[in-house]
Fold this sequence. Notes:
324 residues; 11 helices; Aminoglycoside 3'-phosphotransferase, Chain: A, domain 2; kinase; Kinase-like_dom_sf; Choline kinase; Phosphorylase Kinase, domain 1; 6-stranded antiparallel beta sheet; 3-stranded antiparallel beta sheet; transferase; single chain; alpha+beta
Amino acid sequence: MTGTDTVRDTTGNRLVGGARNEAERSVEAALTAIEPWRGKRLEYAPVLGGLQNSNWRITVEGTDTRYFLKIPGAGSETFIDRALANEAARRAGELGIGPELVHFDAGTGVEVIEFLEGYRACTNGDFKDVAIPRQIIDIYRVLHSGELLTVTKTMFDMVDEHLAQAKDLGVRLPEDAELILGEYQVAKEALLASGLDLVACHNDPMPGNFLVAPGEPMKLVDYEFASNNERAYELALLTTEMFYTEERINELVEAFYGRTDFGLVARVQVCGALADVKWGLWACVNQQLSSSWDFDYHKYGCWKLMRARLKMTDPRWPFWLKAL
């Protein structure tokens, strides 16, 4: 038997004690800190996906269930309230729309949930099938119908937070940022004047956060950006992220609210522009926080802000604002 055989099992999983690099050492440190698993044989293997976090599949001696371990990426604490994310994830598990949460370390943000066997993460291609966003709306309906979370953080709080971060970090924004932010203020005043419809929101419809399996209900994961927020913003994030046509947006507004009219469509359209402002600023700030990202966040952020400006220059923009 070689030294390699003692630290790797027949499935290719790594055994605790055989870490070869910093990423694997961080996994082993996280696993050894979980009290109920101490003294047991633990195996781990990487799980692809996630822009910032390190994800791993965990096998624990003596259990039939495998687990999913998430280790937060460096700098992600700038944007994420770990206690709030844990609260939302626990509630989702209890409501049956997310996996069961089995461990959370408030100090490090390390989280362990059940590994959903047979499930896979959605891709952008999946969202071409209208059945997918309709399943998502069903999940949102369950999440939104529950009690409010302990923290309210609206899209305005998020945008204003990123603006402050951008100023503090000296982040370079597009030359037309002043125009975009001017329209943002107008939209903010109009929405606040109309009154916000606050519900518990997920706030992050990245395709990989939706898990599907044949014959099984869809599950929603990764509640790091969850908070109480405007109901329409949740749908606007989805329709904006997926580049849905106006015809599809109108269909989903009706599915989401049970009816459709110009006022509801206008609310989703305006919130869609704010979603691009929020995530555009987030990306520009994120790029400044670390030089190790294997992704051009600043380019992505500028593109998001450009798309927000495009919507704000739509001839219908003032009419959407008036209809709020």
